[in-house]
Design brief:
Blueprint (H helix, E strand, L loop, with lengths): L15 H9 L4 H22 L2 H18 L9 H19 L3 H15 L5 H7 L2 H13 L3 H11 L5 H8 L3 H21 L5
Helix pairs in contact: 1-2, 2-3, 2-4, 3-4, 9-10
């Protein structure tokens, strides 16, 4: 299985808690340690979104600046990689939109259409519940799934991996990836409806 979903404690390098302590102490070596430990993975997330190595490198560098700005008040001792990955994803999506990367935007639009099958629209969410509650409902669904299916879903809709990349990584045919994801979306829709969301 691709190492992209490993827990933060499984990487080599300084412990996450120590790195966060450096950020809190305003010690710039925090950035160096973050890059050494997670740089390749953060670059991979950005590259998967922007589809351009140079832009991905710029996004990765911006991640450390944003982390410097956000720590404190945040103290992501137990989830540093997830914290940095979320920043990388957000920054990369912004770059994709701002630079009008049409090919990549079309790919992101394709993913959005897939998720619209099972997740309420923004307006519907605002009318029914706080987005945090929706996120928690989706998390409950994902944690009820076998690990392989959960990782497949996250790799597709969080890390924005292509069907072909998922097929290669999981050792599946592209058809099996598509069918599995389609079934997961249908199950997620049913789960959200059972929790009171109108999809």
């Amino acid at each position: 299985m691709n190492g992209q979903l490993q827990k933060s404690g499984e990487e080599n390098g300084m412990e996450d808690s120590r790195i966060v302590d450096l950020y809190l102490a305003r010690d710039e070596s925090a950035i160096k340690h973050s890059a050494e430990k997670y740089g390749a993975r953060l670059h991979g997330i950005s590259l998967g979104i922007v589809n351009d190595p140079r832009t991905a490198e710029e996004c990765e560098n911006d991640v450390y600046s944003e982390a410097w700005r956000l720590i404190p008040p945040n103290e992501p001792r137990d989830y540093l990689f997830a914290f940095l990955a979320r920043i990388a994803r957000s920054l990369s999506l912004k770059r994709c939109r701002s630079e009008r990367a049409l090919k990549r935007s079309a790919y992101i639009t394709e993913l959005s259409h897939e998720m619209q099958e099972c997740v309420p629209s923004d307006a519907s969410v605002e009318a029914q519940a706080d987005c945090t509650l929706l996120g928690e409902a989706i998390s409950r669904f994902l944690y009820s799934q076998p690990q392989e299916k959960r990782e497949l879903f996250i790799r597709r809709y969080w890390y924005l991996d292509s069907i072909s990349a998922l097929a290669e990584s999981f050792g599946f045919s592209e058809s099996k990836v598509k069918v599995t994801l389609s079934r997961l979306r249908a199950q997620l829709k049913k789960h959200l409806e059972s929790e009171g969301y109108s999809v």
